[in-house]
Amino acid sequence: MMKIRESFPLSSIRRQAKANLAQPTTSFRDETVVVIGATGVMCSEACKVLAQLDVGTLVLGVRNVGKAEALVDEIVTECGIARERILIKQVDLTSFESTKAFAADLNKSLPRLDVLLIGSATNNTKKFVTRDGWEENLQVIHLSCAFLTLLLLPKLQISANENHTPTVISNVSSSAVRMTGPWMKFPAKGSQHPNKPPAPAPAGYLRDMSDGKVIWQIAQYGVCKIVHYCWLETLSSLLDPGQVHVHSLDPGCTRSPLSTGSVIARAYLKVFGRSPLTCGRAIAHSCLPVENSHGAMLWDYEVEKPTSFMKSAKTREMRKVVWDETRSVLEALSPDAVQVYAELDQKGGRMSSDRFLDSIKN
To answer: Among 69, 117, 152, 213, fewest CB within 10 Å belongs to which?
Structure first.
């Protein structure tokens, strides 16, 4: 019964249906915002909201350039923003090489970076494996997004120092973080000794996820969202919120190719679904350094209290495993990732397992 109450709280369902968020009013003048997955249903609306808020430069990170060009036409027509202030950059998160090249392009070409908004996702209910050898949901939702975040983190830090205002990493999460958690398999206790180096990429919990040993494929999307949320929580614990703010956001549900794959989902959205504009406003608002939100989950314009699942001892231990195994994967991909991790070690200290769990207990 506890699992059902926590996974499907009636108050959240009512809140999801009734929300009518006001348009954000804080200007993004002179700021550069990078939106990954910009052509998605919700993120395309968020791009329009950002344009209405006078964003300085809007960078659309997309897989399909044709769809992005059509979106630019819509933004220019509906929002009156100059076309020159919108850039299209191609990136394919199913490829680590594409992700690395995209980050290198941004680091070289952008004078500043104020917001990294990651809204890309895939929800494959059948298993697909990428050219890099990982289950596609896991690579797109977690590994490539973590890789991109690390590679762009120095740019965000430099921009914060130069412009004397916090920059923002905002990740569009999902109610799946709440709904999937109680049903997933955790790493085996003691599977990774705290004094040993991280498990190599071919082994460990992430590889079990990729091989379908953690949860059914139909629920893989939710587990990947949980894993990335845990990774972001850990990253936030090593960053100064006065320099870089880290947010996760549940913008609610709307009709999209990701959420209409089943009869139950279509029926739910018909009754309780939000408009894409409402979701887009929530996403745009998450690009602001909201007070007391660093490292937390946002729901609409408020900081959401963590569920008992996210506070559990098992989940705290999983954060450590996810952080270490993700590190072993990403450091093998790029010396730049090695350098960023080394700098995080210097600032936060390379944490022992016990110290790490104490730091995120609350």
So the answer is: 213
